[in-house]
Amino acid sequence: MAHSTSSSTSGISVPEPELNDTEHLVSQSSHEEPQVPIDDVIILRSPRSAGWEFFLHFSTFGIYTAFWFVKRIKELSLLSKQPLISWTWFFVPNLVPIQPFAFRRMNRVLQQLEKDNDSYYPVSSFWIWALSTMVLSAYLWLDSEYTVSSGYWVVGLLLWSVAYCVLGVRFNALKRKLVGVEFKGKQSGYAFWEWLLVLLGFPFVMLILFYSSIFPYTPIDGVESFADQDVYISPDNAYRLKIHGDSWREVKSGTFSDGSADLELAGMGNDANFLVFISGKSTTINDIVNFRVNDIQSTTPSTKCHEKRVLLNSTANVITHVTCKGQEIFGPRLYTITVFESGEHYYELLGDLSTSKHSYVKYAEKINKMAGEFYPL
């Protein structure tokens, strides 16, 4: 019986229960985790706090801002699948005319992404940011074209840096809501090259603020600024110089020279200075002029110089006028050299103007007038 039972059951197969479609899908999902294809994973810069970003914007005079902006637009293009040509946005922070259109388009893309990812940002806040940023950009552009107080320029750079940090906060808020993305880089601190920019750039900006704004030049105690049409007469009654323009003031010896100047004047919004040097008869007018021209052309290679000589009134002495004009990265440069002989000495007036191109014509006229009204007494 036992053998019979064994043979009869060995031929019988137990049917497996059939699964319907729903049960089949549930069974598969219990064994497989949903994954985003590797090729579809978007890699973004880790959200970094505004405090860290501020020093990069500020310490690089806004140069970092252009590169930062390109990176953020590239991320927007990846997330939105819209063809935002990221490299063209490099120019947006500095080109005021295109900012209204660029900022508006950026805002539309951001708004759609924020809507899709439950990240709220008030529309009014964007327009306040956009208008403020455009005004700041226009101001900094004017500073590059016209002469503006360096103190105001530093304040403008400070606000510029804050403005793009505010935009960065908006980008960070959106990033923290995203799903299916990977972040790279530090959320706080800097990479090695960023530390270099901050550690070198920030002290440099602060030095500009300290020397150009707070204490532009060391004045002479008890000496007030000169008014337009004033005449400066040397203490020993050796020479006179007529003042043209406001804000000229006498500063301590060594401010612009090596300390050997008899007189040092600063003016034209700190863009110009005049120095008076006194030489003995061991040299000549030609020696003085050649030395100055060579020194000027070694400093500003593009400089072209023109010389003219005239007789002093009722004397046989000659007064020499040299004008040197050149071009530098940030604007035109003007030097003037005036030399005459009086008694046992030669007296030299050296003028220097470095300003923006739109301020140059007005200032150069006054510099040339002063150079032409340096006379012996």
TrEMBL record:
UniProt entry keywords in alphabetical sequence: Membrane, Transmembrane, Transmembrane helix
Top-level taxonomic group: Bacteria
Transmembrane segments annotated in the record for this chain: 54-73, 85-103, 124-142, 148-169, 190-211
Name of the protein in its database record: Uncharacterized protein
